[in-house]
């Protein structure tokens, strides 16, 4: 996932992206030397976090929107490639609704950058400006289209300036419904003889609920239809809004839930709407993690919340977050490692081309050494090389 609020924003981990947040993260508490290299399953006397399924390897690799480093995100091509590469879990998330209430898979409700909608003159009049979670956005929005209309569109690469090679596949695949993704996962599970694990995100749930398009009821209905609502179902549910996960629990969805964590100064939007003064920084503290453990089984932190970075974007020391989360019984699945220089800490960039690959393998290894239970990557093949080496040791 990207940052929740800004559809076009790339997570560039340099000084401009970190700003004052770097100081907050660095001050959150540094792990001691033992904490830096603690294997995910140690120490032996500590039980494994409740959200860590026994059938998945540690650390696990989540294909972020599939293998989105190589194919346009949230397409069958991206999902299948991630599965073929060996990703342990596929992120078939970023659920947004259509006007007639169908859940589809897009990075954001604004589909300007992820579809060819701008090339459809019949939809020119649908372009508009909306305020989503306090931010004004101009574009075309899924809630203004019926599913039949969405199905006339094709997916395209969201960040062509960085991933020009992915534009080769622009227009190849249609926009998927969540049910189609579930059907694909069930089919591939039968062919493989083992389930396809999914990571599923509710996107802007408070915004959509106010439009009468609540995500949770629709999601719970589909999960029950495919038998993916139980505690042992092969999926994780995730959201930047804690109340969305609580609501899913109240609807009888028992599979592991993961609270996504934004930058430290940000308040979850459901907190803004309800008047809760807490920020992400509060949720990162032991008391906040204990509160999360009351209704969820994991957290999905931003990468610098696991290993701090300085104002220039250089990697610092691991924070206490992994240790504290494990102490609260929570798994830790940070987001999102990408191979390109523009997404890597300054120390791991190679050359001056922001679209060229840096030394992402070294960054993966540093993250795995903190004891995280898994991570999201646009490049699951690279992540798996690092994960398999870590598992061997």
UniProtKB/TrEMBL annotation:
UniProt keyword annotations, A-Z: Glycerol metabolism, Hydrolase, Signal
SUPFAM superfamilies documented for this protein:
PLC-like phosphodiesterases (SSF51695)
Kind of enzyme, top EC level? hydrolase
Under Enzyme Commission nomenclature, its number is 3.1.4.46
Per the UniProt entry, the signal peptide is 1-33
Instruction: Look up the domain of life of the source.
Output: Bacteria
InterPro entries given for it? GP_PDE_dom, PLC-like_Pdiesterase_TIM-brl, TAT_signal
Low complexity bias: where?
34-54
Keyword Signal listed? The answer is yes
The catalytic activity, as recorded, is: a sn-glycero-3-phosphodiester + H2O = an alcohol + sn-glycerol 3-phosphate + H(+)
Q: What is this protein called?
A: glycerophosphodiester phosphodiesterase
In which organism is this protein found? Streptomyces lunalinharesii
């Amino acid at each position: 996932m990207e940052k929740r609020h800004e559809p076009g924003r790339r997570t560039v981990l340099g000084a401009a992206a970190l700003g004052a947040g770097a100081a907050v993260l660095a001050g959150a508490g540094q792990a001691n030397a033992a904490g830096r290299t603690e294997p995910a399953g140690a120490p032996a006397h500590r039980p494994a976090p409740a959200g860590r399924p026994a059938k998945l390897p540690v650390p696990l690799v989540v294909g972020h929107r599939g293998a989105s480093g190589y194919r346009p995100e949230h397409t069958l091509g991206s999902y299948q490639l991630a599965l073929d590469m060996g990703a342990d879990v596929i992120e078939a998330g970023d659920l947004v609704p259509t006007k007639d209430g169908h859940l589809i898979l897009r990075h954001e409700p604004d589909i300007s950058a992820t579809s060819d909608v701008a090339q459809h003159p019949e939809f020119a009049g649908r372009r508009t400006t909306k305020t989503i979670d306090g931010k004004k956005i101009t574009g075309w929005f899924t809630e203004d289209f019926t599913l039949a209309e969405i199905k006339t569109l094709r997916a395209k690469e969201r960040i062509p300036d960085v991933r020009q090679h992915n534009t080769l596949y622009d227009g190849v695949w249609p926009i998927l419904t969540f049910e189609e993704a579930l059907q694909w996962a069930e089919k591939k599970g039968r062919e493989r003889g083992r389930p396809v694990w999914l990571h599923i995100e509710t996107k802007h749930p408070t915004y959509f609920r106010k439009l009468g398009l609540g995500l949770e009821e629709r999601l719970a209905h589909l999960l029950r239809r495919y038998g993916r609502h139980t505690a042992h179902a092969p999926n994780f549910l995730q959201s930047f809004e804690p109340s969305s996960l609580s609501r899913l629990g109240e609807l009888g969805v028992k599979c592991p839930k993961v609270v996504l964590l934004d930058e430290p100064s940000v308040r979850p939007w459901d907190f803004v709407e309800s008047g809760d003064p807490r920020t992400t920084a509060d949720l990162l503290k032991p008391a906040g993690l204990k509160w999360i453990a009351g209704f969820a089984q994991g957290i999905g932190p931003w990468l610098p919340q696991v290993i701090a970075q300085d104002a220039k974007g250089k990697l610092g020391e691991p924070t206490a977050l992994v240790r504290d989360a494990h102490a609260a019984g929570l798994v830790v699945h940070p987001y999102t490692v990408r191979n390109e220089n523009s997404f890597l800490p300054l120390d791991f960039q190679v050359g001056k081309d922001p679209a060229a690959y840096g030394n992402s393998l070294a960054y993966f290894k540093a993250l795995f050494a903190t004891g995280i239970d898994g991570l999201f990557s646009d490049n699951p093949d690279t992540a798996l090389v690092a994960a398999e080496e870590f598992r061997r040791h």
